[in-house]
Amino acid sequence: MDKRIIQEKINQAIEILNEKKIDLWLIFARESATIHDPSIDIVVGTNCTWQSAFMINRNGDTTAILGSLDVPNMEMTGTFKNVTGYVKSIKEPFLEYLNKHKPVKIAVNYSVDSNLADGLTHGMFLVLNNLLKETPFKDSLVSSEEVIAALRGRKSKTELDYMKEAVKETLLIFDMVTNFMKPGKTEKEVGAFIKRIVAEKGFELAWDEDHCPAVFTGPDTAGAHAGPTDRVIEKGHIINIDFGVKINGYCSDLQRTWYVFEDGQDTAPEEVQKGFDVLKESIRKAKAIVKPGITGCEVDDTARNYIVENGYEEYQHALGHQVGRVAHDGGVGFYPRWERYGKLPYLPIEVGQVFTIEPRLTVKDRGIVTMEEEIVVTENGCEYLSTPQEELILIK
Amino acid sequence: MDKRIIQEKINQAIEILNEKKIDLWLIFARESATIHDPSIDIVVGTNCTWQSAFMINRNGDTTAILGSLDVPNMEMTGTFKNVTGYVKSIKEPFLEYLNKHKPVKIAVNYSVDSNLADGLTHGMFLVLNNLLKETPFKDSLVSSEEVIAALRGRKSKTELDYMKEAVKETLLIFDMVTNFMKPGKTEKEVGAFIKRIVAEKGFELAWDEDHCPAVFTGPDTAGAHAGPTDRVIEKGHIINIDFGVKINGYCSDLQRTWYVFEDGQDTAPEEVQKGFDVLKESIRKAKAIVKPGITGCEVDDTARNYIVENGYEEYQHALGHQVGRVAHDGGVGFYPRWERYGKLPYLPIEVGQVFTIEPRLTVKDRGIVTMEEEIVVTENGCEYLSTPQEELILIK
């Protein structure tokens, strides 16, 4: 728990509430270590046991109401100005707070489209409605998705520094992996090698250890979200790895592509080089159009169309997503116009958001070419957070 | 992920669905590594990225429908018989499944009272209702709380073996702590000592590392859910520690009480001994009435009333909760008749459930006396999983 960042994000939340004309942001949770609303990491910094209300008010007040035994821990955490305990029911102190501050719009964490703004469980939604049913606040609840999208998307300088560090360390680990990989090693051995380095350096993995890293060699690999298998690296294979670390609570998410020479080769075969070049150019073209106000689907279109025009099948996923405290962060992303992304592909990109760009294509009989870069949106365009892969990495 | 236990629990879930006359249990989730429905650990064993339906049917079928990139990982996990992928929308394969199996009652994970049965977010509840709105299944959704309460509560032999091991190791660590503690050490030093042992043994902590262990010395301690402080162990203090480990995915949750002699003492002062004896007897009395069919509030009453009758303030929490894959597990517990526990205090206890018994009382100017034991409910009563504390542990 980095208290300085939490304080920055609370202050930012208050600005966002004023910008969006929302009076109160309410995080309503219980046993939050078990079913964890990710907003708690950003603006609270500890967990609660019983029904709890964490409230950030556009007037600058921050108040937490918790079961009495959770009060000392919250006070020691020190992120909220006012901490109130209750023994038998949250109702009385909670309604007292509302009657004092009289919020007209109360944002709570549910969202049809954005999982990171959807931390309120349906049972707790019913509890909350029951608490409010005979009060003037019964029709005040709105989705916090706009608040959370802005809060998670707009990275502060401290956050960007942490993210750059995670990117830098990930690229250093890719260099070590280049020296480790050779024909005869299995995907599992490569995965274990990476995990050992992560443990030695004291980092966390950026996502589930099942498939962080994901390591794929050759044709007929297990698919983008599967873990390393017993498949053996062979000459003539394309290898790709999807991997990230979490440092200071912030993630990286990058991919690189290697080619393993066959005997006598000193350059990659034409079809491998072409796949690499097309993929690289699709990233360059997508990056070139990113700027505030553009929609994610336009960015996705650019890379997707370029890959298809060059004779490859389109990738079966989005071009990119936000990165932050989790690897798949934020609301908007470089999403295709598919139903499963709801309205998110059509929302505008904002300054300060960090995205991956990660198209994919298959080179028949060789394997899958992927690169994943990270960019941050600036006033006039965007900049790489990663040093982008310019050439196939070649293994003898 | 222990596949054998997941298979046991899937089979048990099918039995429970038949017993409760529910046709289908649907776990509906997305990005489950981020907002994690705890039922996924019990019957799925891996995470999903996009909107996913994990379905256990009373006819014995198990089907998972996931974003296509998650399919290989789910197949490698191997816990569900049928795995179907989709690219653009879950709607078609999901409705196809429902039209084939025609469930009348579909249990989904929301619950007003039981947080562990409340893993469905409100946004995903809206997504689900939208998927079903023009189908015959639109009024089929019911809460899965009865299914989950039975599934988490009724421990299999393998589960009980794992829980006994976690209890045994916790008690061994308490023995090591007894030799470590002495006047002049701080709560934080004691906490760090325990965490070192846990790390060396390769165990996990049973709950948030903030306050696992919780270490309290002397009067005016920080409260039951706070972490260790810089308070120093002094002669004449009562010390108590609340601590548990997770081994093979199953938790322990135990407390013990120590007394630090003043110079010249060779027995504890009368008021300390009396506090200990009353607390111990309150546990014995509560344990004596536990059997299938009794309600949790009756068990809580027994200990609470005994403590109050002996002149102490009542404890400001429940007498006990279930333990399992998380430290605060299950639906019913030994809960007082307080609004914050909803209907749970009034539901019957069942065979196979594991509970803590953890009353608390304060000895003025000395500290807090707590013991926490674990019991498993049997056909005719209950048995300790822990070796209960019989005497104050004395420190020179």
CATH architecture label name of the largest domain in chain A: Alpha-Beta Complex
Helix content of chain A: 25-40%
Order of helices and strands of chain A: HEHEEHEHEHEHHHEEEEEEHHEEEEEEEE
Structure annotation, total helices of chain A? 10
C-alpha Rg of chain A, in Å?
23 Å
The CATH class label of the largest domain in chain A is Alpha Beta
Number of strands of chain A: 20
Which word captures the global form of chain A? elongated
Quaternary arrangement of the chains shown? homodimer
Instruction: Assign the CATH superfamily of the largest domain in chain A.
Output: Creatinase/methionine aminopeptidase superfamily
Widest sheet, order of strands of chain A: 4-3-2-1-5-6
Domain module count of chain A: 2
Q: What's the rounded overall pLDDT mean of chain A?
A: 95
Q: What gap, in angstroms, lies between the N and C termini of chain A? A: 44 Å
Poorly predicted regions of chain A are none
CATH topology of the largest domain in chain A: Creatine Amidinohydrolase
Biggest interface reads:
A-B, 65 and 65 residues
Q: Please state the structural category of chain A.
A: alpha+beta
Strand content range of chain A: 15-25%
